[in-house]
Design goal:
Layout (H helix, E strand, L loop, with lengths): L3 E5 L7 H9 L4 E4 L8 E5 L2 E5 L12 E4 L4 E2 L1 H13 L8 E4 L3 E2 L2 H14 L11 H9 L12 H21 L7 H15 L3 E2 L1 H10 L4 E4 L24 H5 L10 E7 L2 E3 L10 H9 L13 E3 L1 E2 H11 L3 E5 L9 E10 L2 E3 L6 H6 L1 E8 L16 H14 L2 E6 L7 E3 L1
Parallel strand pairs: 1-10, 1-11, 2-5, 2-10, 5-7, 6-8, 7-9, 11-15, 14-16, 15-19
Antiparallel strand pairs: 3-4, 12-13, 16-17, 16-18, 19-20
Helix pairs in contact: 2-6, 3-4, 3-5, 5-6
Bound molecules: guanosine-5'-diphosphate, 6-O-phosphoryl inosine monophosphate and magnesium ion (MG).
């Protein structure tokens, strides 16, 4: 299998975990390179559901190596909980997991700051996952962050962390939040550090050795293109580069060693949190929520839903260099008589082909829809492309045509078997 970066082409939750799990059969190494436990990647195997937040989805397949790269921000206590949760369910998490010594740590003051800043913003809030992601990346950029490598030297880590707690308690108090109990934080972080120490390594060196021995790699993107700190709907974004380039900086694997970029797109659009959403359609959300679908894997929040937006996804294809696409959740549209696809935006009376950079401008855009006939038939038992109803085939082909990409995977259910390879 070629070295492949898998990215979400919308606002996250496209079904990346499911597609990674499907493709891992053919790859040897799965790498997370950005984001943190704001991610929630769902995998269903034989009726058992797993939600992974920090650990790459390859962990559920035997003899695959999973790498948490330097670009990830990692909450030690949360990661230990995830490791223990998997082990309790019989999943091996030993030498098959490597954690970069250069990954930055998410500390309890990051979570407290995230929560407090959100509540102070009131109606202007971002709607973050409150996992401390923004403040942790801010500390990294400010060059005051703690890194996973610090966990290898407990005495020094204790000193550095004590200083950081002291400073952040001043900030927390100035924002009207409760300061942290330094002793308690130190204690719990040192316990987590002891569990994580055996996994910590220079993962860039590991990946280069693996490249030299022709091992194939899958880069598991977290979040989605329009949550990217540079290319997303700023400020309603996350704090990392979720687009394909982030996989290289976040792992130490150079761009020329990447062979392919696979974009994952839902057959409709969802978004959690605030921010502009041109094709938002409450009636579609009501239908999907009524089916028990589209509730966040990390926070449980109901996801906002809307029609497929070919304007933004075509732009996502350009930003990421998407060669191939996987369309997921096609079965979510099974009961609709007509389906809308957004093919252009209107802004101030003018038709535009690309989303405007400014979020306020984007919020003023009106969708231009192409109406397509639905198929009114269950697709969940389809196993070959030709098993899909003709209108469903026409719909996914249209998406590939509009986004100027090659369709290679269609997903019609959460299980591994519910995946059609073209
Ligand atoms: P991720 O963050 O991109 O990995 O996606 P999430 O796991 O947060 O959300 C995707 C949801 O859709 C999960 O509940 C998956 O089990 C589910 N899912 C993925 N693909 C399909 C599909 O084709 N059909 C259905 N019904 N569910 C799917
Ligand atoms: P996966 O990997 C969907 C959203 C939050 C919020 C914004 C900023 O499962 O697709 P943050 O906590 O990152 O500072 O929140 O980003 N967000 C996600 N939305 N899927 C995700 O991850 C997300 N991770 C963050 O809802 O709008
Ligand atoms: Mg998710």
């Amino acid at each position: 299998m070629p070295n492949t970066i898998l990215v979400g082409a919308q606002w996250g939750d496209e079904g990346k975990g499911k597609i990674i799990d499907f493709l891992t059969d053919e790859a040897q190494i799965v790498v997370r390179s950005q984001g943190g436990n704001n991610a929630g990647h769902t995998i269903v195997i034989g009726g058992d559901k797993y939600v992974l937040h920090l650990i790459p989805s390859g962990i559920l397949r035997k003899s695959k190596i999973c790498v948490i790269g330097n670009g990830v921000v990692l909450d030690p206590v949360s990661l230990v909980g995830e490791i223990e949760g998997l082990r309790k369910r019989g999943v091996k998490v030993e030498k098959n997991l490597l954690i970069s010594d250069a990954a930055h740590l998410v500390m309890p003051y990051h979570c407290a700051l995230d929560g407090q800043r959100e509540s102070l913003k009131g109606s202007k809030k971002i709607g973050t996952t409150k996992r401390g992601i923004g403040p942790a990346y801010a500390d990294k950029a400010s060059r005051v962050g703690l890194r996973t490598g610090d966990l290898l030297r407990p005495d020094l880590f204790k000193k550095k962390l004590s200083r950081r707690i002291k400073e952040n308690n001043v900030i927390l108090k100035s924002l009207g939040a409760k300061p942290l109990n330094a002793k308690k934080v130190l204690e719990e972080q040192l316990v987590a550090a002891a569990v994580l120490r055996p996994f910590i390594a220079n993962t860039a060196v590991f990946l280069h050795r693996a490249l030299a021995s022709k091992k194939s790699m899958l880069f598991e993107g977290a979040q989605g293109t329009f949550l990217d700190i540079d290319h997303g709907t700023y400020p309603f974004v996350t704090s990392s580069n979720t687009t394909a380039g982030g996989a290289c900086t976040g792992s130490g694997v150079p761009p020329h060693r990447i062979d392919s970029v696979l974009g994952v797109m839902k057959a409709y659009t969802t978004r959690v949190g605030e921010g502009p959403f041109v094709t938002e359609e409450d009636s579609l959300g009501d239908m999907l929520h009524g089916m028990g679908r589209e509730f966040g894997a990390t926070t449980g929040r109901a996801r906002r839903c809307g029609w497929f937006d070919a304007v933004s996804t075509r732009y996502a294809a350009l930003l990421n260099g998407i060669d191939e696409i996987a369309i997921t959740n096609l079965d979510g549209l099974d009961n609709l008589e007509v389906i809308q696809v957004c093919v252009a935006y209107k802004l101030d009376g003018k038709t535009i082909e690309f989303p405007p950079t400014d979020s306020d401008d984007l919020a003023r855009c009106k969708p231009v829809y192409l109406e397509m006939p639905g198929w009114m038939k269950s697709t969940e038992k389809a196993r070959k492309f030709t098993d899909l109803p003709p209108n469903a085939r026409a719909y996914v082909k249209k998406i590939a045509e509009l986004t100027e990409t090659k369709l290679t995977i269609v997903s019609i259910g959460p299980a591994r078997a519910q995946t059609i390879r073209l």
